[in-house]
């Protein structure tokens, strides 16, 4: 596989969204391959050979096959020689925010996204108890990020990193998923700056 022949398997859900946005933001030379989750393409033997978890995104390049969106963003950054995944003193701080996000921030925002937007697609009803717990937990942890962004324009350092795209993963759906983003003015201002990026607003191939 040549250096330019990267393949990014995706669908229009949260984790693939940030990988696709990163690919576009970095102007990485990738071939986008859509996996139709509704028809079960992620459960075929061919796809499970790429990712035994049966999930997207997946990146294939001459270094091999890589799954997990945060790792894919880092690989794409390295491939184009960007510091979107920094290799200096900022890297540990980026890792901290990636870990915190997965455990505390997007975890709860994604729960709201699932309850309000995904369950109804399969005939399910949103679980009120799950929603209330997710909103309470989101507010608790969003305060930490909001306080951080009161004195920082981005998550780490002075320029965008993979941490910003990870933290923002569920926020495009804030209104439809009733994520209480509007209660946190510094997060909202930071996110509005991300929304100015075409790669973030329109991450998926037409």
UniProtKB/TrEMBL annotation:
<dbReference type="InterPro" id="IPR036282">
    <property type="entry name" value="Glutathione-S-Trfase_C_sf"/>
</dbReference>
<dbReference type="InterPro" id="IPR004046">
    <property type="entry name" value="GST_C"/>
</dbReference>
<dbReference type="Pfam" id="PF02798">
    <property type="entry name" value="GST_N"/>
</dbReference>
<dbReference type="InterPro" id="IPR010987">
    <property type="entry name" value="Glutathione-S-Trfase_C-like"/>
</dbReference>
<feature type="domain" description="GST C-terminal">
    <location>
        <begin position="87"/>
        <end position="206"/>
    </location>
</feature>
<dbReference type="InterPro" id="IPR004045">
    <property type="entry name" value="Glutathione_S-Trfase_N"/>
</dbReference>
<dbReference type="InterPro" id="IPR036249">
    <property type="entry name" value="Thioredoxin-like_sf"/>
</dbReference>
<comment type="similarity">
    <text>Belongs to the GST superfamily.</text>
</comment>
<feature type="domain" description="GST N-terminal">
    <location>
        <begin position="3"/>
        <end position="84"/>
    </location>
</feature>
<keyword id="KW-0808">Transferase</keyword>
<protein>
    <submittedName>
        <fullName>Glutathione S-transferase family protein</fullName>
    </submittedName>
</protein>
<dbReference type="InterPro" id="IPR040079">
    <property type="entry name" value="Glutathione_S-Trfase"/>
</dbReference>
<dbReference type="Pfam" id="PF00043">
    <property type="entry name" value="GST_C"/>
</dbReference>
<dbReference type="GO" id="GO:0016740">
    <property type="term" value="F:transferase activity"/>
</dbReference>
């Amino acid at each position: 596989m040549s250096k330019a022949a990267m393949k990014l398997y995706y669908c229009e859900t949260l984790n693939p969204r940030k990988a696709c946005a990163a690919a576009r933001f970095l102007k990485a030379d990738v071939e986008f391959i859509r996996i139709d989750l509704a028809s079960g393409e992620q459960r075929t033997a061919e796809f499970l050979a790429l990712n035994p978890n049966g999930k997207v995104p997946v990146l294939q390049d001459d270094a091999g096959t890589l799954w997990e969106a945060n790792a894919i963003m880092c690989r794409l950054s390295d491939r184009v020689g960007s510091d979107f995944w920094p290799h200096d003193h900022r890297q540990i701080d980026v890792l901290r925010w990636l870990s915190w996000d997965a455990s505390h921030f997007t975890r709860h925002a994604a729960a709201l996204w699932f309850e309000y937007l995904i369950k109804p697609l399969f005939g399910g009803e949103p679980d009120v108890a799950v929603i209330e717990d997710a909103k309470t937990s989101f507010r608790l942890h969003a305060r930490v990020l909001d306080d951080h962004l009161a004195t920082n324009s981005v998550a780490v350092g002075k320029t965008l990193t993979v941490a910003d795209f990870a933290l923002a993963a569920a926020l495009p759906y804030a209104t439809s998923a009733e994520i209480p983003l509007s209660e946190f003015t510094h997060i909202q201002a930071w996110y509005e700056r991300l929304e100015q990026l075409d790669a973030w607003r329109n991450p998926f191939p037409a």
